[in-house]
Amino acid sequence: xxxxxxxxxxxxxxxxxxxxxxxxxxxxxxxxxxxxxxxxxxxxxxxxxxxxxxxxxxxxxxxxxxxxxxxxxxxxxxxxxxxxxxxxxxxxxxxxxxxxxxxxxxxxxxxxxxxxxxxxxxxxxxxxxxxxxxxxxxxxxxxxxxxxxxxxxxxxxxxxxxxxxxxxxxxxxxxxxxxxxxxxxxxxxxxxxxxxxxxxxxxxxxxxxxxxxxxxxxxxxxxxxxxxxxxxxxxxxxxxxxx
Length: 243
Fold this sequence. Notes:
Layout: H1 4-11, H2 15-23, H3 42-56, H4 61-68, H5 72-104, H6 113-124, H7 129-145, H8 150-160, H9 164-175, H10 184-200, H11 215-226, H12 228-241
Helix pairs in contact: 6-7, 9-10, 10-12, 11-12
């Protein structure tokens, strides 16, 4: 028979933790001896090791209490589920660690290879470095917040740029960056973009991330903030498309 302090040292927890487990009903509290001390045996130590292992795995104390009284098969099935959850957490932590290491190395572009190749194509087609960097940053945001839909949205835009006419519109949009917002060329460009959009999506809805997502507005707001001309183009396009 050992004291609570000895039990704590053997198992690797604090006496306070053991008292919490007593209060929560996870570990039965033994009777006190003639000297007023609680005395624990080997079975208590084994039970405490089980509780500590589950707690370290992130299992809530209330669930541990239920598992302690569950039938053996239910207990083992719960352990398998907890193991699966841990596996997913480990994968998530490994992905986070990889991003952290890229950040430490100065690499802020955790983008798929097809996106990186597309960014190189933009430079080769004559887009400004300003436009390429803006596209890179925006795709980082899209892939980080909507990994399930980002790929389809990216491929739609990349496909549109394979059309020389549409690519020309994007190039004009890029070059409009420094124009005065009242320049007549702004109105003409907005009209041409609107016409091209209607033609491309005549029988389909405009591709989007999520109707409830705030990311598209955040992205367009970032673009608009970069140039008064771009902001006016967006205003005109929205008015003409009624979006």
